[in-house]
Amino acid sequence: MKKIKIIGGNSLNGEIAISGMKNAAMPIIYACLLVKGDCYIDNLPDIRDVRICLEIIENMGAKVERLNESSVKINCDGAVGGSAPSELVSKIRASYYLLGAELGRFGKTKVTLPGGCNFGSRPIDQHLKGFRALGAVMDASSDEYVVGEAPDGLHSANIFFDLVSVGATINAILAAACIEGTTIIDNAAREPHIVDLANFLNTCGADIRGAGTETIKINGKKELRGCSYTIIPDMIEAGTYLIAAAATKGCIKITNVIPKHLESTVAKLEEMGVKIIEEGESVIADGREVVLKPVAIKTRPYPGFPTDMHPQFGTLLSIASGESTVIEGIYEKRFKYADELARMGARITVQNERASFKGIARLHGATVRATDLRAGAAVVLAGLCADGVTYIEDVHIIERGYDDIVGKLKNVGADIEYIDC
Ligand code: EPZ
Asked: pTM for the full model?
């Protein structure tokens, strides 16, 4: 079985180039189903989830041509709705974007239930609410498929989401982009990857305004044409490597980032005493000589503190001085990383949605698991700053969302390698 082996204790110093954003790349790949002609997508991260998305649309009849490790040409003219292979769809959460893309393209959809990180129940009631407002009859009663059809055709509508949902907002945009008339999405999620999807579709000729705010207005366009588009950098990957500098008392410059997307992460690192310098599309985190201060974190939808940075900060709080807390406001089961960090000596108490961290000087190496994608990043960070050797199992989960994490960390001085045992 492939594992990651880390001999901890090295301070990490140097530069890391950030890859394209996983959670922007996947909806944009599926959005190509709405577009006629060739789409040239650049800055794709070379990660498992993106490879699965490309394989799914290829199995549906799209033409996918890899131009290099981060660029692809996609033509979905020959794609057939309802034909996404179940064994691939069930591997990733983002497959549920096929619902919106198929409704928008074919007026009907049939998609296997998605997979993805297990944080407890991850309902899709808001996705269904959006589709139904647009005139689709949806049936999610099966424990295998979600099916939907618009017998009288889809129509524009006003959608008001009961809660802020990234996925439901993205699915409503995909379903409504080509519907004649004006669709308004209220209480929309504001994440940068939603703005990236809207920018991609607008480059193809759509008319989507207000993405990044809580109200999105879509004037549907009958036909969208292929374009060339570059995916935004991954703010979660970027934040993960800033924490690596802080945790190992090193100094890392991350390049190809949009500092604005990192604001809440950077603010929390500065509150902990880490020196941050922003230079154009680069950010430097200097953790040398820093005694990490305890902080309180509450995860919230963007622009609040991102839940996807919670586990990684859990590692940093475990070695900060004093007592810190994290209140998780998005997923009830996001704390599974705590058990793995506890094997390395971390003193974490979890009660409902709150975790308390009693910081210790050093973690110690152990054999741990990647229980989900960001928990996997947390144990990598823990191995980097622990005394001794750490072995990480289930590394395929980390490879879902981090492009060449072992290579990137090795390049800044980490003693990290894949081993087979
Ligand atoms: C996306 O998940 C991301 N995944 C997650 O990243 C991220 O943690 C999350 O957004 C929040 O930012 C992808 O983009 C593939 P939500 P998503 O709908 O869309 C509840 C990672 O590590 N909810 O915003 O599923 C839901 O249960 C992954 O990259 C409903 O109740 O998140 C959750 O509590 C992990 N009903 C909250 O809303 C719904 O219909 C936010 O979920 C939809 C969501």
From this structure: 0.97
